Amino acid sequence: MKIIIAGAYAIGTYLAKFLSRNNQDIILMDESQERLEKLDSDFDLMTMHASCTSIEMLKEAGVASADLFIAVTPDENKNMNACIIAKALGAKRTVTKVDNYEFVAPNLNDFFQHLGVSSIIYPELLAAEDINNGLKMSWVRQRWDVHGGALVMLGIKLRESCEVLNRPLKDISGPDDPYHVVAIKRDGDTIIPGGNDELKLYDMAYFMTTRQYIPFVRKIVGKEHYVDVKNVMMMGGGRTAVRAVKTMPEYMNVKIIEADEQRCERLNELLDDDRALIIHGDGRDVSLLQEEGIMSTQAFVALTGNAETNILACLTAKRMGVRKTVAMVENEDYINMAESLDIGTIINKKAIAASHIYQMMLDANVHNVRFLMNANADVAEFIPQEGSKITEKAVKDLRLPHGVTIGGLVRNGEGYLVSGNTRINAGDSVMVFCHDMNMKKIENLFNK
């Protein structure tokens, strides 16, 4: 597949590096030679010093034969124009990053398609959805829903209170049990478990279950004592914070601490529905946190543009008794450190945006692709075609590639866990967990 990426910034470089490892034909173009030179030489991709809105440069890049054109510069107008030109020159599909929430309204899809923009991503909205998913369940690090929660994957940090530690999975998670453990992250390694594997203290375990059995999973992992989140304190009042507050459940009360006085005034204008109390101050100030009620706060969300500040602020909040913390960490070098410090939920906008772009590469009917950065894995919802290989045999006879497991499926709106004897039907929504391999290798199972 030939892919042209315009913009060697955070999302563009992250996506280019990832896709180059998956043996894609990648061209990364940017107007700054300096940004292009920062890319490591061991990545298999071509760089091009050029403007993405130049017709001649796009022709030279071979946009007429491009399967996917992705515009992710900081300028949404340039991104839009680049996609319109690329589509007119022959690119099959185009993706643009925008900063204007108005552009992602569902009723505008046909309008932008007509212009030549196949898909629009607004990273702050995607990040806000992840934040709110984490806040709704204070005892969960990551949550991934299929069909509105008919099937749910829960990433949970295991503590001493977990009831199912040090026992073979075949004894605690058989075909008739209401959950499956689809992956385990332990000491930097990801394990696709078999029946003889065990859950250990401080593992990050990924459970697949159906909606009605979430309370059961909560009980066996010993998280019943975690209080539900009602009071939330945010540090940083950027676009992600605004989108998170606007889409937050109504029962949550929010305080936003913002250091910039002018931004505070703007936040009061944007959030004029009394959804949040805006506080001018430094979120790292312990006395301010105490004054604003940190002791009665169930969740602390750090969303400044500085990863170190967010991590340290979450550590401070934890030491002051806050159970649930969320940190935005855009610097990849700090993600493992944040995990080792037991920060809580990690939000990385470029990885979230890349997940949504990645699913456009896949030929099968694929939805909801997510990168699990701390597990070096992808999760995706595949819909098999009539006559596809995945529908021909029971799961145990499919000989799935190493590193791939099927956690569950949704059929006629109902979620079901998958066992070895399960037969997958065309039209099912199938949850596939894929560790350390190219998801393109397994999509043929779902195609005719």
From TrEMBL:
Residues covered by the RCK C-terminal domain: 141-223, 367-448
Any GO molecular function: potassium ion transmembrane transporter activity
Keyword field contains NAD: yes
Stored NCBIfam families: PRK09496.2-6, PRK09496.3-2
Keywords assigned by UniProt, alphabetized: Ion transport, NAD, Potassium, Potassium transport, Transport
Domain RCK N-terminal: 1-121, 229-352
Protein name: Trk system potassium uptake protein TrkA
Signal peptide: none
Xref: PROSITE patterns: RCK_C (PS51202), RCK_N (PS51201)
Organism: Segatella salivae DSM 15606
Annotated Gene Ontology cellular component terms: plasma membrane
